[in-house]
Design brief:
The protein has about 325 residues and is of the alpha/beta class. Helices cover about 45% and strands about 20% of the residues. It has helices at about 1-25, 45-60, 75-80, 95-105, 110-115, 140-150, 165-175, 190-195, 205-215, 260-275, 280-285, 295-320, and strands spanning about 30-35, 65, 90-95, 115-130, 155-160, 180-185, 200-205, 220-225, 250-255, 290. The radius of gyration is 22 Å and the shape is globular.
Amino acid sequence: MKPIVTLQFAAAALGLALGSAAWAQAWPSKAVRMIVPFGTGGGTDIQARLLADSFRQSTGQTFLTDNRAGAGGTIGADIASRAPADGYTILFTTASLAVNVTLFANSLKFDPRRDLAPISMVSTTPLVLCAHPSVPAKSVKEVIALAKKNPGKFNHGVNSPGTTSHLAAELMKQRAGLDTVIIAFKGGGPSIAALMTGDIDLLFATGPVAATNMKTGRVRCLAVASPKKAAAFPDLPTMNSVIPDFSADNWYAMFFPKGTPQNIVDRMNQAIKTALKEKKVAMFYEREGLEPIASSPAELTEMFDRDIKKYGDVIRKAKIKIR
């Protein structure tokens, strides 16, 4: 009887495998939730809502943006990491995830490298140092000189704790020897709103947010934090032209919960590549100071690991902590 039992087990296993393959092949058969771990109006949220329309057209299903802001993006990432690995939950996040591996090492309830499956890079953008027009400085040098003359008087907003916006502000304090007050918000939307009203003096804004609001005259953009001058901001100098070796940019990428079937990962990867080639998407990215960069899951993994080390070294050397 043993061979019969073995055959029955093998047949059941084969049926399960074939059923899973068919289920994955049918993806998506219902709406897909795209978790944005930051508030509305920021660079991630803006892109998510634009790309959702393209994904709907290429897959035939709705992609719903679900903003879950808080704790530097870790709340939304945690929710995504614990979601079923069935292809119906996507995390659309930023380079802050690489920062948070070190910054929140003692409090993270998940391991981004173990619990998330990379899908693709989406875009990259420089961080842009912006000031409220009331700040009497029109260059990075003038900001530094002014802040040194008025220790503790200037507020430096950051998008939220643990973001590259936060790390860039801390780096500026450390490298330039400044005494500025860090004020954290729950995303790029709330922080740029505070800058426009004058509630904060300085902000490292993401490219899309800086490009949109620079045109209104309600903020003054002073420099880009990318290693080289940014095509989207041709008139702005680099931060490292004043502060040597200063570099902090922001990338955007998508992840599934770990264990999501590979063919679903591949189909979503292709949907991202298709979206980034669309004319309206390309025009939006150019206008908003973003560079579309699709990648393979392996390329995203390599970049993610590299940034974990880079930002981890900076955090430890600067003794940056979230209070």
